[in-house]
Amino acid sequence: MSHKPSTPSRFELHPQLANDTQPVAHLSLCDVLLMDNANHPWLILVPRVANAVELIDLDEAQQAELTREIATASRALQTAFKPHKLNVAALGNLVSQLHVHVIARYDDDIAWPRPVWGSADARPYSPETLIDRIQRLRDALGA
Known about the structure:
Pfam families: HIT. Keywords: Hydrolase. Residues 43-112 form the HIT domain. There is one protein chain. This protein has a single domain (15-115, 122-141), classed as HIT family, subunit A (2-Layer Sandwich), CATH 3.30.428. Helices cover 30% and strands 20% of the residues. The protein has three helices and five strands, in the order αβββαββα. Strands 1-2-3-5-4 form a five-stranded antiparallel β-sheet. A hairpin with a 6-residue loop joins strand 2 and strand 3.
């Protein structure tokens, strides 16, 4: 059973995601966003599909494309930041719009080995670091 809300009928980025992120790239299906949290290299993929809340709200072709784009984002984080581990999750408890977190983790990061949520306050990027991080990610994505 689908959990799609009745409105809107065209894709719009959830205001909370827009507030917490910076745009990095547009893939075939997803917008790639950088979470404004310097504690972790953290990408968010948002399928540009109106009313998508759950993975099952995507058709089979979109589900396959999302899987490919998660792999693309994961490789970009590995290339750019050499993490020890990647965390990939689609939770949606606070923001229902379908989005997938791809987070580079290190065994010495502020939250290790716990999940990043609720472990430490977000630390916004400095303007210089933000510009550098976005460029490194765009280069790694081939964007």
